[in-house]
Design brief:
Arc Repressor Mutant, subunit A, two-stranded antiparallel sheet, globular
Amino acid sequence: MLETDLVMDLIEILEGLRRYQCWYGNQSLPIRHNEMMLLLFLNHNLRPDHLGIQPSKLGKILRLTRPTITSLVNSLEEQGYVARVNDDEDRRAVFVCLTAKGQKLVDENRKEFFRNISEIMEFLGEKDAQELIRLMGRIRVFLKKKRAGLDGRTVECGD
């Protein structure tokens, strides 16, 4: 077991980051942060020659469960930011795409979001930024394994 001081230092840092969760932008969004993340990832991963992205693929990209993705898509669809589109060739296949309103929100906020993350990366420098990404990835793997061991199922971190 690690020293109590080291554990408390980590708790203090993590709590501080939670309090400053506005690191991703000070702008007030008309939607929840996790909904904005879905829009950003949808926009980034959508190819121009495709109808949209299937909810299951969005779940894999965002590492979220099917019920979580369904809830997010339902909420965003109700608000007019995304639409569900059926494939003409396979009516069972459903895709999610941005609406004009969703694209506008992404365009308005993406630049600020990226600027804020870039500032953190520039502050850290390339070597420390890569180390942070590596360490956060290790933590995510640890938490995934621990959670799977607790309840016997594999769940992506962030569910």
